[in-house]
Design goal:
Largest sheet: none
Structural class: mainly alpha
Strand content: under 5%
Number of strands: 0
Mean pLDDT: 76
């Protein structure tokens, strides 16, 4: 049933290249499997482009401070904070536009870490499936 090009699905016989071939096959079939979690992705992008987080921070803090000034009936302070909020939003949009025009690629080290994590997760998944099917000794 296995074609010569297809990787072995027995976890004990799989090489790292087999697992990477499976990953490529999954990606080609639009089955998205990413070894990098959402939290890791947000951290990496915030390190690569901290201007977006800075703009968001200025926007949120100035908005909250503007609401505080509104409750205190300080119209001048409120206007200043709302103008700062608009500037923060503009800065954030500019940072996002810059990131769109100059995308940040994963480094070889990050890519190899993601591949290694994918390989280990895929092995565990395949071993679990084999155990459930009774094909893998405990």
């Amino acid at each position: 049933m296995d074609t010569p090009d297809a990787p072995s699905l027995n976890p004990m016989e799989m090489t790292d290249d087999d697992v990477l071939a499976l990953r490529t096959e999954f990606e080609r079939k639009h089955v998205f499997y990413d070894a990098i979690t959402g939290e890791t992705r947000i951290r990496r992008r915030s390190v690569l482009n901290p201007w977006i987080l800075g703009g968001l921070g200025v926007t949120i803090l100035s908005f909250l401070r503007g609401l505080n000034r509104m409750q205190a009936k300080d119209s001048r302070g409120q206007q200043m904070m709302m103008r700062l909020r608009i500037a923060g939003q503009g800065f954030t949009v500019a940072a996002v536009y810059y990131l769109m025009k100059n995308p940040v690629e994963m480094s070889d080290e990050e890519r190899s870490e993601a591949d290694a994590e994918f390989i280990s997760r895929k092995r565990v998944e395949l071993e679990t499936q084999a155990r459930r099917a009774g094909q893998y000794p405990l």
